Backbone:
């Protein structure tokens, strides 16, 4: 074998195990035992998933310049705290044993508990699942655009979804065509949206052509829904509003409205006209993650926005139930964490933990307890709900930590997943 | 189809002072293939994105046909960005892959089929229309992606370095395909590249940009034969032109140990900032190897000979100190490149005498770098 002397690895935290992968073989020919069988989206490049030191990495063959560029962009996006996959590194200088040069690769970390759209949009697609996925993508696009990122190729294939309580959170997977700017022009945002609309419709029509998705589903309407959702959210987050000086309560109302949408206001521009009778406000800096930040501050739990919303509600109920409204919130939160949340999540046997993220498990437990209570006509305590959930519900769920060895079609949204099993 | 006009179009990025594109005036004819070329940061991609509607135009305007599109959203400009995304849908037939954008737009089925069939004929894909992309070769798949843009019948095609991702061999193939396809379709096309060979081989006309300023626009022949300034002279052509700045003594330029007579008309145009010097350019292929002692001949000491079969190039240094350090070429500073008869290559270390063929020297002002027109 030709020595791989020119192999060059660029990585922020290189893992020596990277050297053990067969870089002298074109990715398309990698032996099955190196690969993790994750469902793949539509890509113009060869993409494979491999196991590395107990985790899963995604490897994409791509031109050298583009590989370095995308690596750098993904690093910048991570720093900006935009939901995106984490880059692991770039490998160049690959050669086959016969000396033939092979394409460079970009390596990213596989996002744990993430689901590709093909696993979610399927035969049994319920209208609200489509809505929730599109909402998640709209939020992601707004966040990217607020950060000055022009995507250039928005599509479902370039996005991964994670469960976030009853909704989804979307992550950017492919930044190849993207650019980071100080601010985006309306043209860039508009073009990104148009590309997204056309790509989404195309991807759904493709699922229909492959009979993975029912003919009746209106692909065009779903694509257009993205545009509407995006516009709504963008307007809510960025437009200026004017009102009379006697309506100053509207400043606080605007901030609360943004908080409800999951955003914090980092900077609000307030101007009054010359005679001081009208006030004009416009959010200048908004940061997503209002609820997840609050939960993090109170409990140290790092979860997604809607999971955080759900946990915070439960925390509020705990506070009311234990009659501690006047206690310091952080003390109550600490007690809720150790007395309620942690025991419930720990009750899940280790073998079942790759099924769902702990916060998602807790969200489902809350749902399950509600269903049980309703069915039994009494208030079911958490301990009882956990037992029932671990016995009857969770074992039926597919492992979603890294969707391995499962064909996408087997990962349909099951309408009964959070319900009570039929006796 | 339509003309495209940049009318003093300017883009200044927020927080910067120098425009990325500075008052660009450029008129592109209906059906023309225009290539924007220049080094990185010259403003070529920004110009294309202004036309696409992705960059704001801070001053001036842009027209497609007679329509001012300066403030029109990208999707309403009737343009197609080719190669932005050429992932094909695996479950759709080739015909559906090409026509789905029309389906989204609500075009009647019969019309979609007609347009897809027309495009397929041009792209040599007719027999594959009912197959799935999996059954196609790489090149065919790429043509399907192009077909997607063609069936939309846009007024202008925009291409931003579409070949940069391909390996060298496929790049040359695809280059020819795009150029011949464009001619068959006759759709106005604006193409961005940093590669002057791509520009020369593909464009009806080429626009060279540098630092946001248009340097010259013309046919590949114009750019090669009469570059407007030293920058264009050095940028267009491969191997690059030899360019040197030489002091003048009594109307004679001192080139190494040789002297070259400068035409009187040229001497008459010299300005104060030329500092009694002149910039002379001569292409590697504009030199004849001549016997020692021939008038106006330049001795060159051979450093390396590069043999390419059909051609051979000598990389050498001018003999004699004076001025030698100011010559540059594609091979670097103080090097000159000479194309020689591949059947009579000199040896390394030898000195050859070369003379610029009559009428094939390029004269530029040493101060401004502008061409001295004669």
Residues:
């Amino acid at each position: 074998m030709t020595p791989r002397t020119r192999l060059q690895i660029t990585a922020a935290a290189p893992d020596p195990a990277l050297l053990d992968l067969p870089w002298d073989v074109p990715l398309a020919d990698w032996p099955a035992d190196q690969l993790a069988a994750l469902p793949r989206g539509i890509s113009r490049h060869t993409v494979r998933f491999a196991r590395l030191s107990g985790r899963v990495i995604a490897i994409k063959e791509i031109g050298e310049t583009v590989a370095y560029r995308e690596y750098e962009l993904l690093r910048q996006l991570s720093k900006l705290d935009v939901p995106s996959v984490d880059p692991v590194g770039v490998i160049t200088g690959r050669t086959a044993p016969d000396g033939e040069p092979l394409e460079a690769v970009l390596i990213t970390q596989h996002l744990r508990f993430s689901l590709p759209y093909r696993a979610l949009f399927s035969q049994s697609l319920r209208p609200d699942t489509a809505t929730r996925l599109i909402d998640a993508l709209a939020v992601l696009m707004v966040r990217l655009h607020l950060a000055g990122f022009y995507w250039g190729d928005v599509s479902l294939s370039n996005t991964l979804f994670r469960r976030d309580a009853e909704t989804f959170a979307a992550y950017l997977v492919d930044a190849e065509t993207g650019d980071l700017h100080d601010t985006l022009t309306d043209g860039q945002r508009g073009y990104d949206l148009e590309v997204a609309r056309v790509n989404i419709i195309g991807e759904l029509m493709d699922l229909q052509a492959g009979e993975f998705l029912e003919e009746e589903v209106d692909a065009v309407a779903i694509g257009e829904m993205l545009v509407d959702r995006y516009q709504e959210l963008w307007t809510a987050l960025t437009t200026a509003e004017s009102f009379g000086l006697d309506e100053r309560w509207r400043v606080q109302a605007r901030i609360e409205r943004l908080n409800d949408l999951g955003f914090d206001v980092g900077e609000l521009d307030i101007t009054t006209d010359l005679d001081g009778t009208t006030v004009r406000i416009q959010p200048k800096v908004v940061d997503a993650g209002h609820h997840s930040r609050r939960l993090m501050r109170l409990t140290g739990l790092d979860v997604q926005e809607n999971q955080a919303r759900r946990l915070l509600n439960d925390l509020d109920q705990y506070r009311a139930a234990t009659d501690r409204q006047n206690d310091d919130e952080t003390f109550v939160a600490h007690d809720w964490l150790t007395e309620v949340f942690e025991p419930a999540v720990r009750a899940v046997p280790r073998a079942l933990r790759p099924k769902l993220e702990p916060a998602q498990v807790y969200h489902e437990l809350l749902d399950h307890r509600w269903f049980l209570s309703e069915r039994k006509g009494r208030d079911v305590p958490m301990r009882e709900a956990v037992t029932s959930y671990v016995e009857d519900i969770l074992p039926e769920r597919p492992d979603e930590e890294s969707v391995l060895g499962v064909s996408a079609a087997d990962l349909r949204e099951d309408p009964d997943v959070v319900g009570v099993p039929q006796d | 189809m339509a003309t495209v006009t940049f009318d003093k179009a300017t883009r200044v990025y927020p927080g910067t002072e120098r425009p990325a594109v500075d008052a660009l005036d450029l008129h592109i004819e209906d059906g023309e293939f225009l290539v924007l070329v220049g080094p990185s940061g010259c403003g070529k991609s920004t110009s294309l994105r202004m036309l696409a509607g992705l960059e704001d135009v801070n001053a001036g305007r842009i027209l497609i046909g007679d329509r001012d599109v300066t403030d029109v959203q990208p999707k309403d400009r009737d343009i197609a960005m080719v190669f932005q995304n050429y992932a094909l849908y695996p479950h759709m037939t080739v015909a559906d892959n090409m026509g789905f954008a029309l389906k989204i737009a609500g075009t009647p089925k019969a019309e979609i089929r007609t347009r897809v069939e027309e495009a397929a004929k041009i792209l040599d894909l007719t027999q594959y229309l009912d197959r799935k992309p999996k059954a196609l070769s790489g090149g065919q798949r790429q043509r399907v992606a192009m077909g997607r843009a063609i069936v939309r019948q846009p007024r202008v095609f925009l291409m931003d370095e579409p070949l940069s991702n391909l390996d060298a061999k496929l790049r040359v193939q695809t280059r020819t395909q795009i150029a011949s396809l464009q001619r068959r379709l006759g759709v106005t096309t604006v193409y961005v590249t940093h590669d002057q060979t791509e520009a020369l081989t593909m464009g009806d006309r080429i626009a060279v940009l540098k630092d946001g300023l248009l340097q010259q626009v013309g046919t590949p022949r114009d750019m090669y034969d009469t570059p407007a300034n030293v920058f264009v002279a050095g940028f267009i052509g491969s191997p690059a032109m030899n360019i040197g700045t030489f002091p003048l003594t009594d109307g004679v330029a001192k080139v190494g140990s040789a002297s070259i007579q400068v035409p009187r008309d040229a001497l008459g145009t010299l300005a104060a900032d030329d500092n009694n010097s002149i910039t002379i350019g001569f292409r590697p292929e504009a030199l004849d190897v001549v016997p020692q002692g021939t008038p106006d001949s330049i001795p060159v000491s051979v450093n390396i000979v590069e043999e390419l079969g059909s051609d051979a190039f000598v990389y050498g240094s001018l003999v004699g100190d004076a001025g030698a350090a100011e010559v540059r070429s594609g091979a670097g500073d103080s090097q000159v490149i000479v194309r020689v008869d591949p059947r009579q290559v000199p040896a390394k270390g030898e000195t050859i005498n070369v003379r610029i063929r009559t009428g094939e020297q390029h004269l530029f002002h040493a101060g401004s770098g502008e061409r001295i027109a004669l």
Chain A touches chain B at residues 42-44, 62-63, 65-66, 150, 152-153, 155, 157, 177, 182-183, 185-188, 190-191, 194-195, 198-199, 201-203, 205-207, 209-210, 212, 220, 223 (CB under 8 Å). DSSP finds eleven helices and 13 strands in chain A. Residues 404-423 of chain A have pLDDT under 50 and may be disordered.
